[in-house]
Amino acid sequence: MKRKVRCGNMYIGGDAPVSIQSMLTVDTSDVVAAIRQIEELKDAGCDVVRLAVPSMEAADAFGKIKRETVLRHGEKAMPLVADIHFDYRLALASIENGADKIRINPGNIGEISHVKAIADAAKERGIPIRVGINSGSLEKDILKKYGKVTAEGLSESAIRNARLLEDMDFQDIVVSIKSSDVCMNFDAHKILDAKTDYPLHIGITEAGMGESGVIKSAVGIGALLLAGIGNTIRVSLTGDPVKEILCAKEILESVGLRNSGINIISCPTCGRAKVNLEKIVLELSEKLKEVKAQRVKEGQPRISIAVMGCIVNGPGEAKEADIGVACGDGKGAIFSKGEIIKTVSEDAISDELLRIIVEME
């Protein structure tokens, strides 16, 4: 089992659930915009958020943002992570201003004494340090050793930098090694996971945007999670970070690490379909949003809903679903555990399924 470190009001590693992270896309110095985006991410289901701190102005703003989020949410305020590069003084200022975690690459901080100053300040405040290693930031000697960026090189760099902190008597370490190459990323994490007990922050860096970025992230992160690797995740997509949270939640749900409250199963349709199945699924998904959120909030068991395009295989293929519909020519046979209980017209399918699901609560 991995080490367990505290980050604000939550834990990373050990027996803690896999958490979801993101990073603000707005300038940290713009306090109003930063708080607005933090609220959006929190509402979407984000657990931890990282803020870039490239200047002392941003470090000062970090403190204002931290105070405002605590004022709004108290103990439930989302943990804030300061992302630091090069200037150790920005890390010290961020720690002083209430950072719940610091993200650094010790190699680009410079002098060892500066890294130690960060470690000492973080230890005094009881906050973890995330050692972040990307394929673009490998040390020259490691690049020379392997001839190029490799999985072995990434893991070696991460271990070296984490042990540098341990030599400074600092133990609350989270490690991330990210590559935009899905296969290299997987191999690097396999090596690192076997050699250390550090909690691992996983993701596919610079995954891109849209469908391509989502697929690359789902494959890369999902493969690691199914291998039992990863304690906290970030889906790195170009654009609105709220989309990262939605994608991350779907990944965790798909590998069985999150309970969304409701799981919708729908077939891809074929020539037998005589209804507009896409329209039915979209309507049902929209109508179930509040019910889904409420079930999660109340800790109710997850239920499965199957929406199948034809009567031929519908009940049989989705017999394990709690409730579902197998569609015919302009109508749908509502079934439970494979047994048909009633038939309704196509335009009444989503409302009927919603009614039954609400009554199941």
Quick summary:
By secondary structure, the protein is α/β, with parallel strands linked by helices. The protein contains 14 helices and 15 strands.
How would you describe this structure to a colleague?
The chain has 361 residues and is α/β, with parallel strands linked by helices. The chain has 2 domains: 4-254, TIM Barrel; 262-360, 2-Layer Sandwich (Sulfite Reductase Hemoprotein, domain 1), CATH 3.30.413. It is built from 14 helices and 15 strands. The protein has helices at residues 31-44, 56-73, 88-96, 106-109, 112-125, 140-146, 151-166, 182-195, 210-226, 242-254, 277-287, 289-298, 314-317, 349-360, and strands spanning 4-7, 10-13, 19-23, 48-52, 80-83, 101-104, 129-134, 173-178, 201-202, 232-234, 262-266, 303-308, 323-327, 331-336, 339-345. An 8-stranded parallel beta sheet has the order 8-7-6-5-4-3-10-9. A 5-stranded mixed beta sheet has the order 11-12-13-14-15. A two-stranded antiparallel sheet has the order 1-2. Strand 9, helix 9 and strand 10 (232-234) form a beta-alpha-beta unit. Helix 6 (140-146) runs antiparallel to helix 7. The radius of gyration is 23 Å and the shape is elongated.
